[in-house]
Amino acid sequence: MDDFTKIIVSENDIGRKLDQLSAAIREDYKGKDLLLVGVLKGAVMVMADLARRMPPTVQMDWMAISSYGSGTKSSGVVRILKDLDADLTGKHVLIVEDIIDSGLTLSWLLGNLRSRGAESVEIAALLRKPDAVQVDVPIKYLGFDIPNEFVVGYGLDYAEKYRTLPFVAILNPAVYGG
Ligand code: PRP
Ligand code: MN
Ligand code: MG
């Protein structure tokens, strides 16, 4: 049995897209101090590859958050497991996410970070599932819109596995007993 039914975003697709997005980000933040905020754990890969395309003065910080709610449904009520080290006062913040699914996580995070006195707070996300979005979040830098399927790889997990794949693939339903 193959663990994946289809690769939907290849390693090359990701690299080319990050080249484009990073060029736009470098231009937009020229002369400004930029703080990239990654959301653990899914954003680790995109953060690493995006940050390496930035000027060496770019800073990285991390948050770990968890949605309250039963099972797989996220509720939009979020708990901070690990907060930022950085004080955001006067900073230009770019939240880096692997995927926007319902949008509930990011919607909450955007409000939370915007209340901390940052000069600006924007979002970069590699993937979005338009058919799953429940709340609209303004994404300044978006990689790909993808179908509403269970995808893994490049940071995205199923039961903490498959995060290390260099591509994004649809998980074979047989893996989760579907
Ligand atoms: C996933 C993904 C996003 C979030 C998107 O994280 O990495 O952070 O869900 O979902 P939403 O748009 O419906 O809120 P997850 O909570 O699975 O944690 P992980 O990053 O550690 O895998
Ligand atoms: Mn995540
Ligand atoms: Mg996950």
Automatic annotation (TrEMBL):
Gene Ontology molecular function: guanine phosphoribosyltransferase activity; hypoxanthine phosphoribosyltransferase activity; magnesium ion binding; nucleotide binding
Cofactor(s) the protein requires to work: Mg(2+)
Protein family (similarity comment): Belongs to the purine/pyrimidine phosphoribosyltransferase family.
Main localisation: cytoplasm
EC number: 2.4.2.8
Organism placement in taxonomy: Bacteria, Bacillati, Actinomycetota, Actinomycetes, Micrococcales
Protein name per the record: Hypoxanthine phosphoribosyltransferase
GO biological process terms on file: GMP salvage; guanine salvage; hypoxanthine metabolic process; IMP salvage; purine ribonucleoside salvage
Location(s) in or outside the cell: Cytoplasm
Membrane-spanning segments: none
Pfam families: Pribosyltran
Keywords per UniProt: Cytoplasm, Glycosyltransferase, Magnesium, Metal-binding, Nucleotide-binding, Purine salvage, Transferase
Family matches, as Gene3D superfamilies: 3.40.50.2020
Domain Phosphoribosyltransferase residue range list: 13-158
InterPro entries according to UniProt: HGPRT, Hxn_phspho_trans, PRTase-like, PRTase_dom
UniProt catalytic activity: GMP + diphosphate = guanine + 5-phospho-alpha-D-ribose 1-diphosphate; IMP + diphosphate = hypoxanthine + 5-phospho-alpha-D-ribose 1-diphosphate
SUPFAM superfamilies: PRTase-like
Source taxon at top rank: Bacteria
Pathway: Purine metabolism; GMP biosynthesis via salvage pathway; GMP from guanine: step 1/1; Purine metabolism; IMP biosynthesis via salvage pathway; IMP from hypoxanthine: step 1/1
